[in-house]
Sequence to fold (423 residues):
Amino acid sequence: MIYLVSFFLHLPARFPPLGVIRFDLILVGLITFLILSSKFTNIFRLDDASKYLLAIFIYAIVSLPLVQWPGSVINTGLIAFIKGAIFYFFTVNLVIGERRLKLTIIVFVVCNLIRVIEPLMLHLTTGYLGSKTHLGGGEFASRLSGAPSDIINPNGLAFVIATVIPFLHYVFSQINKKAFFLYLVLISLLMYTMVLTLSRSGILALGIIALGIWIKSSRKLLLLVLGGLVVIFVFMNLSEIQKDRYLSIVSDDARQSASATGRIQGWFDDFEVAMNRPIIGHGLGTSMEANWNVRGVNQVSHILWAEIWQEIGLIGLLFFVLYLMAMIKNFIGAGRLARRYLSKDDFVFRCVEAMQVWLLMNFLFSFASYGLKSYEWYFFGGLSVTVLSLVKLKLDESEQLTNAERSQFERFPLARKLSERNR
Fold:
């Protein structure tokens, strides 16, 4: 949990002495040592998702003689990938019971709420915004980004907001009436902060979250009416710049529609860069170098699939897609069993619902942001194993699984092993 707090709140950036001693690296080494030296190592078995992640890492090393910038792979790419992928292995080895899952979710949500509320408070007290966007004609508009100690751009801040909303809705709002009231307050703050980011992808993510919640809800008409009223109220209170920004998503007549069109054109340009070395790639962590040298743009590809293709080619892209498919199967399997056998008040059931909505949202965000070396795909991949094992454990204890369902669960060996460890 200390590592989660340090990672999300950037403690080494806030407290320079921690940065000097490489605090996060020390924690990673310590946790890895404890995992490898634990008694559970003897029964540990890699599942398909683990194998695909290791395949990406090994492929990045083996392909070093063939890629264009092997030095960048060694200096930055491999290290950044390890920092992200390690979340998967930490999660499946350490979050092995419902109590630990609760603690992990609480720490995760609270830390990310702090990342949102901190820049919001700075904005309200000092006018801080931290970023700006071009409106056209030489004019710019300010956008809210992360706090000075949290280096995330406005779209990154919007992603943090979109990430915590499913957990607030499914996990926390249903605890009691006080929690529901706090949920309403937090949602209002998050919506206001989202507007300040001027993030079009963030607004689309909110739409996907709302769609996911609506699909799962038994009160579809009520949610449709309330959602419509909220949209009308929010839109009526937007500034002209904000209205134009969000209308540019669907209208070519909006002043900022050119930047939206430019983003779409950027996708095609990024894929053209990938076609420069389509099979092998330019090297893990070299998307920025590839874009600069091929098309003269000094930035990482802002679409996950192009980023992966540029860096590790079609071979690496295949491994990543297979990893995602394994994660999706875990969530689908956990969701099917949870909806059939668990109470809607059960914590694990609510977590599964939240994670499935998050998965839908993050798939959309993958078309507006990079993420091969970010934590989210790997952290939630690990959680998919955890929730599947916990659902199976609950059903095993109550002896509710049919033989067919038990056989289906056998396809997820790591989840089965974790379930056995929890007994």
The chain has one domain: 38-124+200-421. Residues 38-124+200-421 form one domain.
